[in-house]
């Protein structure tokens, strides 16, 4: 290939790239100047924030059967892994602590986990574990009161 044809090809590729960038800038400006853009963006972010906060809420299985606790345990471990991968160490620690508490694991089990998890997650887990144990006991007491009153309570089949 001669030097002039290389120059022509390079110029063509450069022009195509420049046109593409101009196209992107034009439509981005048009999108941002739309009257509903900011409102739609606020709604979208609020919906994502609500979805994220709902994902962090922990609903313990009741009644705590072996099968429901195992499903809950696996779900919380998966959530913990996902949250940790997104950089939410505290959320990951809460999910992991809830899984350990619901499965009846003792605090001594935490020392076993020390070598199997990142140090920052382990430190956060040690901080959250006692509070999660209290939260679990309160949730079980609240559900027991609802059962005594005859109010509707989620069963383990509804966790699927």
From TrEMBL:
Molecular-function GO term, any one: protein transmembrane transporter activity
InterPro entries: MAS20, MAS20_rcpt_metazoan, Tom20_dom_sf
Cellular compartments annotated: Mitochondrion outer membrane
Transmembrane spans: 6-26
Keywords annotated in UniProt: Membrane, Mitochondrion, Mitochondrion outer membrane, Protein transport, Receptor, Transmembrane, Transmembrane helix, Transport
Record has Transport as a keyword: yes
GO cellular component, one term: mitochondrial outer membrane translocase complex
GO terms, biological process: intracellular protein transport; protein import into mitochondrial matrix; protein targeting; tRNA import into mitochondrion
Membrane topology recorded in Swiss-Prot or TrEMBL: Single-pass membrane protein
The family this protein is said to belong to: Belongs to the Tom20 family.
Entry protein name: Mitochondrial import receptor subunit TOM20
Organism of origin: Trichuris trichiura
Taxon lineage: Eukaryota, Metazoa, Ecdysozoa, Nematoda, Enoplea
């Amino acid at each position: 290939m001669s030097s002039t044809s290389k120059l022509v090809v390079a110029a063509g590729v450069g022009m195509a790239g420049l046109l593409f960038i101009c196209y992107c800038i034009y439509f981005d400006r048009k999108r941002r100047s739309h009257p509903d853009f900011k409102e739609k963006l606020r709604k979208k972010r609020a919906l994502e924030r609500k979805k994220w906060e709902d994902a962090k809420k922990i609903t313990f299985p009741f009644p705590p059967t072996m099968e429901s606790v195992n499903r809950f345990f696996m779900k919380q471990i998966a959530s913990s892994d996902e949250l940790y991968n997104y950089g939410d160490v505290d959320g990951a620690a809460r999910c992991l602590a809830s899984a350990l508490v619901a499965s009846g694991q003792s605090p001594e089990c935490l020392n076993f986990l020390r070598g199997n998890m990142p140090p920052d997650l382990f430190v956060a887990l040690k901080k959250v574990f006692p509070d999660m144990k209290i939260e679990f006991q309160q949730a079980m007491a609240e559900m027991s009161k609802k059962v005594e009153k005859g109010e509707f309570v989620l069963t383990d089949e509804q966790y699927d």
